[in-house]
Write a structure and sequence with these properties.
The protein is of the alpha/beta class. It is built from 23 helices and eight strands.
């Protein structure tokens, strides 16, 4: 039976002339070699669904699930087809027709829209990791219902902090003597639960540039739900954030050092364009959203930085790359402004590292193959510091460093700027 819900995309899909140039930019295809892992193959499946040559079965979905939605194929495509949007649409139709796993639905519909519930579950996960419970469950397979995903996650995530960023920042006031800008800091889940030290460095760096920073009471940005095809959950999360961030609309900018969060916030206007009650507010919020490096370069990077010794290279998070937000020059400008750092461009810097949110937990074999290629490129630069602007990338790249036993530190740009600012004042 033809999948009529995809019919509006038919003309776009038929622009694929099956040339195969997408092979050059698809990290997954480079690992698997499967046609269905390639944009050309994915588009052929979508076309067959629309024409009724295939049924929307679990087998077809399995062939589409290994897409990382990174758009690595798009720059090599003459019609510039955004294959991720096609794959996302198929996922949405499948979910609407057949439902979704109960746990996934609970996370997307109950946990992510509620910052208090999200914080609670995040702390439980951190407690399980620190206390060794995750190790026990992984080794014994006590939770067989989740296959080996917990074991993989336990291996990739080396440790979790005792206190989240929100716990650390509670009661903190931002009162610079002269505020040039008023900034709302959007707290990403990754930095809140996994790398709170990065969030703290981000606040210090922004404040040193004369900004009064308000830590916002946001919840998850909603990108995970959107990526899995639960678009309605993503819209509900966006509406929740619109309400929670209403006071921030009086500020000069809403900043996140998570490339996925800042880019998804910029998409709120499009995501809610058909919602009469929210469209205008969503568009206004999107206009204020900035990535960390984008905002900092925009207001003028600090010229009074002290030296940070080392050789550094930079990995472009997919959502900040030229395929999405086009924030690529700014992080390099910041890194090259730090005295003492020797910057070397990373070959294939904008290739996905394999994290892709939770991709590495669900498709670990493919993700590791992609990561190994990335780490080979990093090693060839001779860098001792590997910088990026995304918590998932930091997590996966650090896993790659451990896996390959490289003498490299994975750092966020804000951490390096914070270190330079401290040494500069000294």
């Amino acid at each position: 039976m033809a999948v009529s819900e995809l019919l509006p995309l038919y003309d776009l899909i038929t622009k694929c002339n099956r040339c195969g140039f997408c092979q050059a930019g698809c990290p997954v295809y480079r690992v698997t070699g499967f046609e269905h892992s390639l944009a050309r193959g994915r588009l052929a499946l979508a076309r067959a669904l629309i024409e009724g040559q295939l049924d929307l079965s679990a087998e077809v979905m399995q062939a589409l699930e290994d897409c990382m939605l990174c758009r690595g194929c798009t720059p090599h495509c003459f019609p510039a087809i955004k294959t991720d949007e096609i794959v996302g649409a198929v996922r949405q139709v499948y979910l609407n027709r057949y439902g979704q796993p109960a746990l996934q639905r609970f996370v997307f519909r109950q946990v992510l829209p509620d910052p208090h519930l999200l914080e609670r579950f995040g702390r439980i996960a951190a407690w399980a990791k620190r206390g060794g419970l995750a190790d026990i469950v992984s080794r014994t397979g006590l939770l067989g219902l989740i296959d080996n995903r917990l074991a993989v996650a336990n291996s990739v995530v080396q440790s979790m902090p005792a206190r989240t960023f929100r716990q650390r920042v509670q009661g903190r006031a931002s009162m610079p003597s002269k505020a040039r800008y008023r900034v709302g800091y959007f707290v990403s889940c990754g930095f809140n639960f996994q790398f709170p030290e990065v969030a703290e460095a981000t606040l210090r760096v922004i404040e040193r540039h004369g900004c009064a920073v308000t830590v916002l009471e946001n919840t998850c940005c909603g990108r995970p739900a959107h990526a899995y095809g639960d678009v309605e959950a993503a819209r509900e999360i966006a509406r929740s954030n619109l309400d929670r961030l209403a006071p921030a609309m009086e500020l000069d900018a809403i900043v996140s050092e998570c490339g996925s969060c800042s880019t998804h916030l910029k998409d709120y206007g499009h995501l809610l364009k058909d919602d009469a009650g929210c469209a205008a507010r969503a568009g206004a919020l999107s206009a204020k959203a900035k990535s960390f490096s984008e905002f900092l370069v925009g207001i003028g990077a600090d010229r009074f930085l002290g030296p940070v010794e080392g050789a550094v290279t930079y990995h472009d998070p997919c959502h900040l790359s030229n395929r999405f937000a086009k924030v690529t020059a700014e992080p390099r400008t910041l890194l090259q402004s730090i005295p003492g750092l020797i910057y070397t461009e990373l070959p294939e810097a904008d290739w996905c590292c394999g994290a892709a949110g939770s991709y590495t937990f669900l498709h670990h074999q493919e993700a590791v193959g992609i990561l190994d290629r990335k780490m080979g490129n990093v090693e060839r630069t001779g860098a001792t510091l590997l910088a990026t602007e995304c918590p998932a990338c930091m997590m996966h790249l650090a896993y790659g460093v451990r896996r390959h036993r490289l003498p490299i530190q994975v750092r966020h740009i804000s951490q390096l700027l914070d270190e330079a600012s401290v040494s500069g004042r000294g």
